Task: structure prediction
Amino acid sequence: MGEDGQGEGASRRRAVRVKRVFMANNPETTVPCDVKDLNLADTGKRRIEWAFQSMPVLQNIRKQFIKGQPLAGVRIAACLHVTTETANLMVTLRDGGAEVRLCASNPLSTQDDVAASLVRDYSIPVFAIKGENNEVYYSHIMSALDHKPNITMDDGADLVTVLHTKRQELLPEVIGGTEETTTGVIRLKAMAKDGVLQYPIIAINDAATKHLFDNRYGTGQSTIDGILRATNCLLAGMNFVVAGYGWCGRGVAMRARGMGANVIITEVDPIKALEALMDGYRVMSMSEAAEIGDVFVTVTGDKAVIAKEHFEKLKNGAILCNSGHFNVEIDLEALAKMASSRRQTREFVEEFALRDGRRIYVLGEGRLINLAAAEGHPASVMDMSFANQALSVEYMVKNHSSLPKDCFPVPQDLDKQVARMKLESMGVKIDRLTLEQERYLSSWSEGT
Ligand code: NAI
Result:
């Protein structure tokens, strides 16, 4: 993707702390940022370009955006995983005329080289450092909000929550937002139900072209990737426990089975549990699974799914990780209390030595393992999720005044448009209904 580095707004030259950071690393840039090291930008740029090749739908949208400038003058504060795919979304929005600022949606998911390249090569302000502590994480959200956004783009609803609780003075300028993930959508719907949500938000996650593919195949593959990169363990023959058989859980289970693991599902929803059983998995309670599992992955969006009573039963050497949005699915506080010592055995692998002699391994501090230890979802699947993001922002800019202060799905025609564009990019043609079929499918008079 060719870059000219244009489009810096005066507002981008404000952040004080960042000024210090970029002056140390790259005195010639004036883009506000707090990134690890601008010298990492070369690698980041090559990786961003590599991902862009696998994002044909977003490429198409970018071309349309460059021509039509549908986001001219719109300020966007984005709180997303800072990955190569996100970088391409940011550039697409910017090329549609928006002024974009980006911060991380998880302390461990930032790719520092990508953050550096976005600042140096694309003049996009970024506030994100892999491994940042909670205080810095929230200060970065504040820096993104200092942009006085018209649109918020969130992944997990942390930015929206901070805006509604600590930065309410900014609310009058916000016209709408988007939310990327299941957990964020749940939080936003709860805000709408309590009557506190102050503007309309489109639930990107609820688009079929998002959760059917990103959550299932994306999380499925990249979670396995994260576990393998962190541990280099052999999955074949292992008892592999997946907690939660939703969109992500289905994907993780499917891919673990493909690697030869003996997959066990735990669920709280009887329908999902039955589905898992008939998909050919063993289904049992976490208490039972705890006794026999070798590897555990939580993908529920819930808290304390693996808790003290389960730790008590785990086999020596059991590996625990999470791919759900927040790091609350494994009760790490309880595990820490049970441990006599802790040490880092490999990058992203922490050993908890329990008083009874067992050793339990936790990957990536219980944070999203696919982003902590691997690179997140492959670009070709994020192509659809981020096409939904870009088209939804455009839709929001056009229609915000007639939309309710609620969290609702991507309009179906946009969802279908994304599917059509993806198929086209893959060279796949599908049939069309004939007029006769259309009539038949909408009538009741014809029978046997
Ligand atoms: P979903 O709603 O489709 O599935 C969650 C499943 O967990 C449901 O079937 C529910 O019944 C089950 N569940 C809830 N509490 C449970 C418990 N205590 N024990 C066992 N099962 C339980 O949600 P989806 O889309 O699969 O997302 C799951 C989580 O993954 C969310 O936090 C979401 O934000 C996150 N996510 C992570 C991604 C990643 O890159 N790692 C990508 C997309 C989503």
